[in-house]
Amino acid sequence: MSTKIDIISGFLGSGKTTLIKKLLSEMLSSEKVVIIENEFGEIGIDGGILKDSGIQIREINAGCICCTLLGNFDAALKDVLKKYHPDRVIIEPSGVGKLSDITAACQKVIAQSDSEINIQAVIVDPIKYKMYIKNFSEFYSNQIECAKTIILSRTQKIDQAKLSEVVNDIRKCNPSAKIMTTPWEELSAQTILAAAEETGSTPLIQQEEAFESVHHHGHCTEHGHGHCNCEGHHHADDVFENWGMETPHLFSEEQIKNMLKKLSESEKYGTVLRAKGILPVSEKNWVQFDFVPEEFELHPIAPDYTGRLCVIGVNLNRPALAELFGV
Questions:
Q1: What residues form DSSP beta bridges with 256?
Q2: Domains of the chain with bracketed CATH
Q3: In what residue span(s) does the CobW C-terminal domain sit (predicted)?
């Protein structure tokens, strides 16, 4: 039986790791699963968040799958298939990666191994949709246009009229994809997997040809202007940047909340699109924080070898970020 390769993509902070944890805990515990994590930046965070699942995780931290790491990614996937012979490989690309590039890299490996692309999904946060499609259309549209399944996150937090507007816009970008709009809390992992694995979507090669046609004829530029557009093929490293640190510093939860509020309220730090970290709040208690524009969350997490944090955005003010986090 060939190995299933599941690509679960999505822009920064869309909920990829949350969905993967749900699938692992509810449905995939009986399968031999390997996760290939790609962090945009030098400080890996999500691998630490997923490690308590007992799943083998191979992180690739030096850059972005869609550009500088294509060669390394090929080797990593080949190595995983040869070494672990898994039932399933879950690939979580960088939030600023292009789904077309990661799919192309997988196809190279598939041609030389007993494996197949099973799920080709993108997670979209409808609350942030308009902002991201406007400012980062080249990357955001690529993920939507090249997916076979589009899973909307946090739909319970958006007005139904606005949700319908987002769904209609997504259908214009990708009329053949299956769009899942029911809140995750109301769905079992089995239902999500069954929907994403269901055959009958537009063949991959046709989707790629459609994407190339759209890309060169300016569909994305109808949505977007500002940081990116589709006039040229940009790598994530050309547009986005990251700042990350390891720190032994002990924080209070109130300190962390105040720092994250400042990221939202002040432009002095640059355009911050995503921040995440694992930090100690006492000798035995740690928290994981997740930040996207205008909102953030803190959750308890198991202690790690040291505190880590990472910020992703555009025109980041590194000295100001270092001062904010006291590192």
A1: none
A2: 3-223 (3.40.50.300), 240-325 (3.30.1220.10)
A3: 240-325
pLDDT score for 121: 94
* Residue 203 DSSP label: P
Which structure tokens are listed for 149?
């399944």
List, in order, residues 6 or more apart from 61 with CB less than 8 Å away: 39, 41, 42, 43, 44
CA 167, 189, 296 angle in degrees (round to 5)?
65
What residues have CB less than 8 Å from 8, skipping those under 6 apart? 16, 19, 20, 90, 91, 92, 119, 121, 123
> Tens of pLDDT along 259-288?
999 988 888 999 888 888 889 998 789 998
Distances 223 to 53, 209, 219, 230 between C-alpha atoms, Å: 39, 20, 7, 10
For residue 273, give the nearest of 290, 257, 289 by alpha carbon: 290
As a whole number of angstroms, the distance between CA 78 and CA 179 comes to 31
**Which residues, 6 or more positions from 126, have their beta carbon under 8 angstroms from its beta carbon?**
152, 153, 154, 155, 158, 162, 163, 166, 167
Q: How far apart are CA 295 and CA 310, in angstroms?
A: 16
| Arithmetic mean of pLDDT over the chain | 78
**Does the pLDDT at position 80 exceed 90?**
no
DSSP 170-188: HHHH-TTSEEE-S-GGGS-
What is the token pair recorded at 87? 């039932």
